[in-house]
Specification:
GO terms for molecular function: hydrolase activity, acting on ester bonds. By secondary structure, the protein is of the alpha+beta class. It is built from 19 helices and 23 strands. The chain has 4 domains: 316 residues, P1 Nuclease, CATH 1.10.575.10; 49 residues, no CATH class; 51 residues, no CATH class; 181 residues, Jelly Rolls, CATH 2.60.120.
């Protein structure tokens, strides 16, 4: 029923938009373009490269094109309730999800499979083929595989959505429908319509995002907690709180120093007593409040935009290494053909036999992921200090507060391969991303080394992620060289003895560097500070909750918006929970624990389009208090991974957190005192876990599983 109401509302809005395009949805078109130009200029001041400057017009055009048709109904994101625009019991997709939803964007002008008002992705159409698709994946795909003008325009659409997250009405569920000045106009948006030029602010603090979701959370949470819309003046949300703010000179002031609202204070005498009454209004006749809002929020829009452009180039480099989006760009007809052919092969092999196995046959069908083409040259090898090693391509060293730069735009020469080594096995292993590749010092094969211990996955770091420690192979080589230098007798021995010594030094240094890595990792995020790992004094055996998920919801899970179901298929142990098609949200609150930890198993598989997991921990429900977005990705390898989460009291009065992947020893932790936007003070315990999952089509293989939530 709610989906039907949303459908009717969107149809009426689209019809009204066709009749007259003057709905005031957020910033005016000229304001979006001005912010986009300032973002491009700011990025150019901080980074080298030519793409952004060459395609600045396309980026600006995309920033205004996002308001076409009915798209603005998906330009709201309430970070407190994790939802989009909600009106008349109908709920639209949030801008946070819309930005990543290739399927919805490609078919946004179609309802169901029959009623369409334009082009959409058909049965024989490639996944990245719709002219109405301006999603994040589409931007990365087009940039890596050829149409960079389309990539730039799509990036402009993403910047538009991020700019809307700096409009208080758009993050506080205030729809403010307005037509030609009639209706519920938003005073802040009316005020900002005058800005066609925006100068780059001074002292930009550009964030270092690890994912697009984090960018939306960072921006929307700041706006929601520190600003008001006309219809949410100190109501509907827990922040800002009037009693905690200063009232002076007729205005309410925030802790950041900007005006929050107009306050008219009166002293009235009632029943012989003088009573102080405060009347709150959004603004005065001089737009004093709106002016302060614009000063702060326009800067935040530019800062977040620069961070997203930097993230865009990092994601493009990952795609070149792994080629996941390229493998995804097939039609439903091709997927059905491959599935039918694969099933047929199983039958034929069973009846008549075959020298091929199933994996080899699927590879012949093109089911395996192909390596993405190299479009740009490898940068000249440079010596990168261990503390700034990255899991992406080598980047230039910049001053503190400057985010990573854009790569060169010159055509890239593909790597030459030896004919003798050009076998299918070599190509299969070549698709794995290699952090910070450096040339071997010699062409002779290196001596065998013991396998390195498992590392915390850089792709699943959540909001607390930092760059991974330096490659252990490099540290091992350095340790071996130092060992050889310090022992002349060994260094001058026969080659066989020298080789043995190097192997011993390598094995020794490998065990040493694992512990050393925890004290060298740093973060470029200006709002968080990595700390070195002191001697552990906390036993992390306490946890607020446990659940085997064998009998889901028997232990007090709160069903916020859940389609999770218990299943016994593909579980880690006995039964587990599996997200169903749609948006799944559950939360569990247990005994508050000041310092502790827990482990949980997670698994993800993309069979059709989308399966996006998220995990939050907090004190109380995350929508009501401070929380940490601890996990926002699980590898798409259809395998179970174990995540260990720890928290403890930290320095400077801020609680510290740690996330490990496929290991549980807190000695390996790199501790952090904050997520991107919020701090959790010492003395505040953790008692709540929240598990989210956004899944496109469970019936076609998209899935997220959770299992074995345990104390350590």
């Amino acid at each position: 029923m709610e989906n039907t109401r949303a459908l009717i509302l969107k149809s009426l809005i689209l019809l009204a938009g066709i009749m007259s395009p003057f709905f005031a949805w957020a910033y005016e078109t000229n304001t979006h373009e001005a912010l986009a130009r300032a973002t491009v200029e700011a990025y150019g001041q901080l980074h080298s490269g030519t793409f952004v400057s060459m395609f600045d017009r396309e980026i600006v055009r995309g920033s205004s094109g996002e308001d076409f048709g009915s798209r603005p109904t998906n330009h709201f994101y309430d970070p407190v309730n994790n939802r989009g625009l909600t009106v008349w019991r109908g709920e639209f997709e949030s801008s946070k999800q819309w930005a990543r939803d290739t399927e919805a964007q490609g078919n946004y002008n179609c309802w169901g499979t029959i009623i369409c008002f334009g082009t959409h992705v058909g049965y024989n159409d490639k996944w990245f083929s719709s002219p109405t698709d301006y999603s994040w994946d589409r931007a990365v795909y087009e940039y890596v595989y050829g149409d960079k003008a389309r990539a730039a325009e799509t990036l402009g659409h993403i910047l538009h959505l991020l700019q809307d997250a700096t409009v208080p009405a758009h993050v506080r569920n205030d729809p403010h429908l307005n037509h030609n000045g009639y209706g519920d106009a938003d005073p802040y948006e009316n005020f900002t319509g005058q800005f066609s030029q925006v100068a780059v602010p001074n002292n930009l603090q550009t964030p270092n995002f690890i994912g697009l979701s984090e960018a939306f959370d960072f921006t929307a949470e700041f706006t929601n907690k520190n600003f008001l819309s006309k219809d949410t003046l100190f109501k509907n949300y827990s922040s800002p709180i009037l009693d905690s703010l200063d009232i002076k000179n007729g205005f309410v002031y925030s802790r950041f120093g900007h005006k929050v609202a107009r306050a008219e204070v009166r002293i009235n005498k009632k029943a012989g007593e003088f009573i102080k009454e405060i009347e709150i209004k959004f603004d005065d006749e001089n737009d004093s409040v709106a002016s302060d809002y614009w000063r702060v929020l326009s800067k935040r829009a530019i800062e977040s935009g620069v961070g997203v452009i930097d993230l865009f180039f990092k994601e493009a480099e990952k795609e070149r290494q792994a080629g996941k989006l390229k493998a995804k760009n097939v039609s439903q007809a091709e997927l059905d053909f491959k599935e039918t052919a694969s099933k047929s092969f199983k039958v034929v092999k069973k009846l008549y036999g075959s020298s091929l196995n199933q994996e080899e046959y699927d590879e012949l069908l093109g089911a395996s992921v192909a390596t993405a083409p190299a479009l740009e040259p490898e940068p000249t090898p440079v010596t990168v200090p261990p503390q700034i090693a990255r899991d992406t391509a080598p980047q230039k060293i910049e001053e503190p507060g400057i985010v990573a730069g854009e790569e060169s735009e010159a055509p890239q020469t593909p790597l030459e391969e030896s004919p003798a080594s050009a076998t299918p096995e070599v190509e299969e292993t070549s698709i794995e991303p290699i952090p910070n590749p450096t040339p071997f010092p010699e062409m002779t094969p290196p001596p065998p080394e013991p396998p390195p211990p498992p590392q915390s996955s850089p792709s699943t770091g959540g909001a607390l992620h930092v760059p991974p420690p330096p490659a252990q192979e490099e540290q091992a080589a350095v340790a071996a060289e130092e060992e050889a230098t310090s022992t002349p007798d060994t260094a001058t021995s026969t080659p066989e003895v020298a080789t043995s010594t190097q192997e011993t030094a390598t094995a020794t240094s490998t065990s040493q560097t694992d512990a050393a890595a925890t004290s060298t990792a740093t973060s470029t995020d200006p709002s968080s500070q990595a700390t070195s790992t002191p001697a552990l004094t906390t036993e992390f055996h306490d946890a607020p909750f446990e659940d085997s998920f064998d009998n889901f919801n028997s232990l007090g899970w709160s069903e916020i918006n859940t389609r999770y179901a218990t299943t016994s298929e593909n579980c880690y142990s006995n039964a587990c929970i599996k997200a169903q098609t749609g948006f799944n949200v559950i939360a569990k609150t247990g005994t508050p624990v000041l310092e502790g930890g827990f482990t949980i198993r997670g698994r993800r598989h993309i069979g059709f389009r989308t399966a996006i997991p998220d995990m939050f921990i907090s004190y109380g429900p995350s929508e009501n208090g401070e929380y940490v977005h601890i996990l926002d990705d699980i590898p798409d390898d259809d395998a179970w991974h174990q995540y260990a989460i720890f928290w403890r009291e930290g320095p400077a009065g801020l609680k510290e957190f740690c996330l490990l992947t496929d290991r549980t020893d807190p000695v390996s932790c790199s501790w952090f005192s904050t997520k991107v936007n919020d701090n959790i003070q010492n003395g505040i315990p953790i008692d709540t876990i929240r598990l989210d999952a956004n899944v496109s089509r469970t019936d076609l293989g998209d899935a997220v599983w959770w299992d074995e939530l345990r104390r350590l």
